[in-house]
Amino acid sequence: MYTPHVRTVRRATALPLLVAAALAAGSLSAAQPSAAQPSAAPTARAAGPGTDYAADDPFTADRTSWFRQDRFGMFIHFGPYSNLEGEYTRPDGTVCRDAEWIMRNCNIPREEYEKQAATFNPADFDAKAVVAAAKNAGMRYIVITAKHHDGYAMWPTKANSWNLHDHSAFDKNRDIIAELKKAADEAGIKLGLYYSIWDWHDPDFPDRATFPAYEKRMYAQLKELVDTYDPALLWFDGAWQQPWTAEDGERLEAYLRGLKPDLIVNNRVGKNRVTDGDFSTPEQEIPDTSVAGQLWESCGTLNDHWGYARYDDKWKSSSELLRNLLTTSSRSGNYLLNIGPDARGRVPGPAAERLGEMGNWLRTADQGEAVHGAGSGGLVEQPSWGTVSRKGDKLYAAVTQWPQSGGSLHLTTRTGFDVKQARVLGSDQSVSVTKSGDGYDIKPSGAATNETATVIELTVDPGATAAPGSGTGLKQEVFDNPELSGEPKLTRTDPTVNHSWKFTGSPDAGVPSDGFSVRWSGTLEPRRTETHTLSTVSDDNVRVWIDGKLVIDNWKPHNVQVDQAQVDLTKGRRHAIKIEYVEQTGEAHMKLLWSSPGQDQQVIPQQQLNPN
């Protein structure tokens, strides 16, 4: 699916304006764009100075609630590359093996790739069966490749003829995306669509001089997808490739949010950074901890390929896959697990088998509570013998290394809390919990319930949390220079420090998009007495003081960066806070988040901030 050099980048004030009008559909032959296709890219942009692209806080927004709760989704890589089933025989008789990258990595001439795509006939694709397999596995959403890097559209696009409807042997009366959308809606499953910005087939993509013509067709296709299929999520890829720029990503993301304000978009809409989109996308890996500054989702394969490869029998066990899922949920992440249908559109048997086994485990004895709606264990350190996730007053310890008879499991605590009750899901054995050293010892009386992971549910009392405050935000002073000097251009109360001005925006229409600075001051009032992690997401200079002490100091110009500090805060006390920020040139971002053992990561909310 992706190039090996792609790397994970760690990372509502005002709704963005619609930055492009509805785009007229053009036509594109299988090989070349039509001469009648408009050559100019969408030119309408956001208002410029005064524009803020931060629509909400994805950690708490209603818009992203389903994504944060569902945790487990199905990825589907399916396209004309599936027709080759992983093997291409060269003219000299040698065989080259690959999957969704087979066109490029096996150097298949465009004409030859088009010829084989014309025979693509996934007549056995059964949307209801695919959705049923996802639901049976405990998956709550599906993301399918509407267009991969080969540029082939899996829906009847009007932007070109390089698509499943016009360039295949498939039934002209069928629409795979529409079928999947209908089946997903009926089953209560969310549908997302993958779209590659990089396009190997369109000759206008690689050259910046001709790129605007490609970009206009891309906007037209994305509007088709949003208007026709109403996806809950758009999953972009290929944005690392030139000539795509961060400015292009800014414009596209704002356009999409104008089309559908509640749309969720991944960070590959821009340049894979913590300030792009709503969530980051580590691939074939699971971060060691929750990702700072952004929601996240790890995507992975059932075997060694994304697309179908008939020879790939390196199937991961359902136990390994389940443990991946438990690990992601224990770190407040999602797991997007891929299937690759074959040339006829059938789900490989070993894939269906493993999905079924995962679903059986999740349904048994309510073990899925450790995943669906759960997040970081927070209150405890992650143990070596398994994982711990949290949902409300429940901790779910998924034990992969069960203690020997009479042995115990130690949990190291990160904050004070009491354990009220403990039980093994799916077993009537007793469980004792005793305070020991830096935490608790958990001693089950019987055997593990299964080989994958046995879940111990702990009902806890994390201690009193103060009621939400009545704050209105922080005092904000905006200067029309990068030195925080002179009289502020404007002074007001800012509800939260949650801003993505990006390239074209600024705090006020009277302040230019480059060369400004901002000071916030007032107090913050925590709801728990704990060591909190403060996180700033900034580009450029930033520094933060708590109770007069400088705790974050990154006062040199820098690109998008997350800085963190550990600070002890007391419930109900108003701690003095001051933040200084400078925008030099280029992009402008400034967010302030907090988290603690008992507080999930979020932008510090307005209720806990006061201007004095």
Automatic annotation (TrEMBL):
Keywords: Glycosidase, Hydrolase, Signal. It comes from Streptomyces rhizosphaericus. Residues 469-608 form the PA14 domain. One of its GO terms (biological process) is fucose metabolic process. Belongs to the glycosyl hydrolase 29 family. Residues 1-30 form the signal peptide. It is an enzyme of class 3 (hydrolase). This is alpha-L-fucosidase.
